[in-house]
Here is the input.
Amino acid sequence: MANFHTVSRFAGAALVTLALAWGCSGENSGASAEMPIGMFDSGTGGLTVMEAFLALDEFDNTSGQPGADGIPDYSGEHFNFLADQANMPYGVYNAEGKGDFLKELILNDAKFLTTVPNNNKIIVVACNTATAYGLSDIDGYLKQTGTGVRVIGVINAAVKALMENIPAGEKSAAGVMATAGTISSGGYERTILEAFKERGDSLMPLVFNQAGVGFAEAVDMEPNFLKTGANAPREEYKGPSAGEGDGKIDPALMDVYRFDRSGNALLTGRGADGKEIIQLNSAGNYARYHLVSLVEKLRKEGSGVQMKNIILGCTHYPYLLDTLVKVVSELRELKVDGKYPYRDLLPEKVNFIDPAKYVAIESYIALREDNLLARREGETTLKSFISVPAPGTDPAMLDERGGFTYSFKYGRKTGEADKTYIIEELQKRHMPVESIERIRERLPLTFSLMKID
Here is the structure.
């Protein structure tokens, strides 16, 4: 994935300095080096973070100093990964007025990973929405337990990467693509501006946000946003639709989106009122729509500043990195009435910032500081878990794939979450074939440990 211009490195000693400055301090009094590293996401998208952990080689494993030594930094570690698939996407709960319910789900994830039999020595929140809405709650819970287990989220890690790529005093624009929940929290924009202010910058970057409605859901093939067997527009569709304004597919921009029309990737038609219907039905088309929409915001703003950096503020988005890079090239080459409306707004190589590697770096420093790295000889292992609807769930509350219907999922009340689902070890039967193949292709290190082939 590094071939797609992903930002992936800190410079020398700055790596340690930045990571320590963002909160890696203190002793872990209740954990031991033999315990696993725990990680969770609202779905399988967080496995992109797992891949970054498994691939990391930024340190000398003997001295702990920055510098690759040819040995994976987490060699010999055991990992536990939880995909809260039954309750995903997290990014919708706040919009549905279920912010407290979302926090309950996030705390349940943390509790699962810090209680018998799944005690872990550190918790990595591999989910931007969970970081934005629940990181402080998890931190409070962990402090209350007295174990000293730390929690590390993805937002600060992405902002560190952004700062590495915007020199002090440079006039710049930064894009943030994330779930609607993450964007509405203001977590990224607030953290970016605070970080640049603390650095003493006289110029703040212009931050443009794009709420990726349906993007993560399409990657996980949630039927309300993508249905492989659909051949015509559907009433249950919840993704972007034709219209004007933010969050709508602008029919006037169809030549800009350049949607894939093969098969049933794009569903179109006319409603009873004669209005045009446009529905996205492939993860690639969701990626196209949201990136074009983000760049359109920059164009309409009219500052003329280039957007050199775009944060992929959802762990599902790196799966479509090749598509995003392709769209950048298409926009730069698009000619309208003899002009190139996007060429001056985008460099040839946009830095798509995937926070995953920076989270892995920050976690390594924290574990090493607390003497919690296993440093064991032997095989690295991964135990994967997934949430599924509880046995006995009313079939009327389940969709065709056996997951919760949209109305049931977002209609539940605070205090009853753990009564509606259970957590099992991840098996092949839990995932669509397309998802398994995507993990095999994009995340080879992770796939080799999952034992779901």
